[in-house]
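S2.1 Query sequence (Glucose-1-phosphate adenylyltransferase)
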Amino acid sequence: MQPTAPAWNEAPPETRHISRLTRETLGLILAGGRGSRLAALTDWRAKPAVPFGGKFRIIDFPLSNCVNSGVRRIGVLTQYKSHSLIRHVQRGWGLLHAEFNEFVELLPAQQRMDEHSWYAGTADAVYQNIDIIRHHAPKYVLILAGDHIYKMDYGPMIAAHVETQADITVGCIEVPLDQASAFGVMEIDEQARIVKFVEKPPNPEPMLGRADVALASMGIYVFSTKFLLSALIRDAGRHGSSHDFGKDLIPGAIGRHAIYAYPFQDTQRDKQGYWRDVGTVDAYWEANMELVQVAPPLNLYDRDWPIWTSQEQLPPAKFVFDDDDRRGMAVDSMVSGGCIIAGAQLRRTLLFSNVRVESGTVMEDSVVLPDVSVGHDCRIRHAVIDKGCVLPDGTVIGYDPEHDRKRFHVTEKGRVLVTPDMLGQPLHTGEQTPG
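Output structure tokens follow.
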């Protein structure tokens, strides 16, 4: 009997698939990219190491999804300026049990194939670790981008892969057509089988019957291991290939192998699941600002699906002074441990750990990374303040775009990125390297 895929956008069952399938799956997280569109936020760290959400790093989301899904054999492939990323994984992800064959392994680019080759593309990064895949001998390989924010149970996707007898299953979302050129865009048939896949097309095709949206890849793939290994070997020997899953390997397999799309659904809300590519400063600012809403689209308070991270031991946040002209307060904001708000006012602002804000300062609609010191009588809005910045008394940011551009990075939408380098300050001295 010919296997069939579920109807497109049909919500998968709510039960978590921690089962034989997830235990037989090896997760590989591609975490080697810089993320150059994040500008100076990635001058000294890889994109997956960028802080997010008050206390996390971006890499914590795919790692937590793996652990919560029951995929507990995980490799993290690193390359670009990976020190802070490696340190974070070492400090925060020792929670698995080696005696049960659970692990998070760091797989830096180490010229395993020859002495000249770094990771040349996403497929090449996996190919260069082909001996490690063979050693772990999984039945399925789950390949994930390490730089997206979302919560997803991978179990149903792996189960759908097995049910349809697919060679490749691609996690998909619907995106507005005018944004689709930033993604891998695909066309599917009535059985959700992928019949066309184009990476970042300049003129993306809309979904059938949906003129305003395109079907886009999330950078999440399930492979049957035998097929993956043979496909990687073929691609490695193909002259002219860029050795990338979206540009080469997946398009080259269409029409000759079983490749299915898998819809990412929020089964509780009966709609497409939350997923953000925080690949630009504007997107990063917006995703963080969503978290201070009364009912944010991403629930970080969900005890059934926790986001794990390296947990620094810090005192509670403190708000001091209650005079009319000097009142420590925060409205519609998130404030992490170790922060002191000494007579300052915060509105719609997210503070990471160990931030101090002095009296007379007003901060609005801003994201402040760890270990920042903000002086007296500052006015700051629509800003992203990088780790370790020291803002002098009277600093004004976000009110005069022309003046801000002379010192800082100002986005098309007017958000201002400030880093220690831009302030002429040394990198954060609390750690030997930034991150």
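Residues 166 and 258 are 5 Å apart (CA to CA). The chain has a mean pLDDT of 91.
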